[in-house]
Structures are given as C-alpha cells and as structure tokens.
Amino acid sequence: MGLRDLVYRTPGLSTLVYGTYGRRVEAHLDPRQVPRHVGVMLDGNRRWAKQAGMSTADGHRKGADRIRDLLGWCEETGVEVVTLWLLSTDNLNRPEEELRPLLGIIEDAVRDLAAAAPRWRVNPVGALDLLPEHTATVLKEAGQATAESTGILVNVAVCYGGRYEIRDAVRALVHEQAANGGTLEELAESLEMEDIARHLYTSGQPDPDLIIRTSGEQRVSGFLLWQSAHSEFYFCEAYWPAFRKVDFLRALRDYANRHRRYGG
To answer: 65: which of 106, 122, 144, 172 lies 20 to 30 Å off by Cα?
Structure first.
C-alpha cells in the first residue's frame, strides 16, 4: 500500500497529514498578498450527497455547516469581504420538494450568521422580491440586525443572477434620472461605468480579487458578472461540503503566485 492510499484509508492520519500541510502553506502566505474580497460559488452539495448515499437536503445542510468554517478561515488570513452564492435565480425552477427545504436551510444558515454578530456583517444581495416573503424577510432582518457589526462583510447571494443584478442597476439608474428631472437622452450622453457600478448590489464594496468555485466545474454561471472583470478564478475539485481549510489555503497561495494584469 502506497503512502497516498494509506493516508486516504486512515482518517486520523489523513487529518494529521493535511493539518501539517495546511500549517506549512499558511506559514508561507504573505499577508500583503491576501485577497481583500473573496467570492465563493458553493457548488456540489447534491453530488456530494449522492456520493455519500444521503438525501439532497442532507447535502445542503452539510454545505451550510461549512460556511462558518470558511468565514473563520477568512478571519484568520485577513480577508475583509466574502460573497457567498447560496441560490441562483435559476435555482427557483427546481422542483418544489427540493426548493422548499433548501430555502429553509438557507434561512437557518443566515440566522446563524446573524446570531454571531458583531463577528460578521450580513448583507443580502439578489432579487429578493422573487423569493417567498418569509425567506426575504429573514434575509432583510439579518442584514438589519448586523448593520453595525465591524467584522467581515458577508454578502449572502440568494436568488442572485449577474444579469438580474445589471438589469436592476440600470433600472435604478433610470428611476434616479427621472426623479431628478433628467431625460433619457441626457442620461445616454452622460452615462459612465461608475454610474452603473454604484447601483449594483455590492455598491461601495471592493470588487472581488479572487473567486473560488468548488466541485470541479469551470464556469462563471453569471456570478458577479460586472464585478469580476479583473478577478482571478480558482477552480477546486472538492465538492463544497468536503471543502477543507487546506483547499482554501491552496486557493490563496495560487492567487498570491499570480501576476495580476487587470486586463492587460
């Protein structure tokens, strides 16, 4: 039996080895090269559950439990803003028997984050008007309850789609122009990219430096379409419920080793 097989087949040894390796990676991270804003696409809950012989809801619950771990790792490494994609607008088309428990799990996860105030500041982002009223209320209350928190800013993207966000930003800009007595022609003449940016869900925040997607999928899927123009992407093979601190540290190390060209 090779060393790799021995590690995988011995849980205690696996924990020891990855713990030691993770500490080595963390020790060599330069605090000056840690991303300020990290976006995470929490992908693979259903596939993890299927592989483990569990229900889809169990997979989502396991994924929700992993969120606190991630935020703790972000605190330890100096990340200031985290955006978590919990539910896309496309996910609303899932069968009712899957969507209903998923929304309940998201509500519980958001309440849990809010209960940790002032450790984290919860900021709901997404087309909340498309959600069931109860879910939207839970998200808004979490945002209000943590508004004065001074810890990591946690954007919880629920019913989020990049195209919806840009659409909503343009709508808000047009309404603003009308409220100020301006015409569409005047808006067209004066429109700058910053005008749209200040109406995005993440207005006033730094754009994401690093975006992590779990589960091995290598697609953007509409996540932070506008904000990610100059982001670095890291695709991890692990399903989200199995995402470990060492996976997170590898992502930070990979980010630190890149030469960011900002479109050049």
So the answer is: 144
**Which position has the higher pLDDT, 261 or 30?**
30
Domain assignment of residue 25, yes or no: no
Residue 115 lies in domain: 32-256
Question: Is 91 a known active-site residue?
Answer: yes
Task: Give the tens place of pLDDT for each residue, 47-75.
Answer: 999 999 999 999 999 999 999 999 999 99
- Given the residues 91, 112, 195, 254, select the one marked as catalytic: 91
37: in domain: yes
User: pLDDT by residue (tens digit) across 117-140?
Assistant: 899 999 999 999 999 999 999 999
CA-based nearest residue to 66, from 86, 37, 89, 88:
86
CB count, 10 Å around CB of 59?
24
Q: Which of 43, 207, 209, 247 is catalytic?
A: 43
**Tokens encoding 194:** 């910053």
Question: How many domains are contained in the chain?
Answer: 1
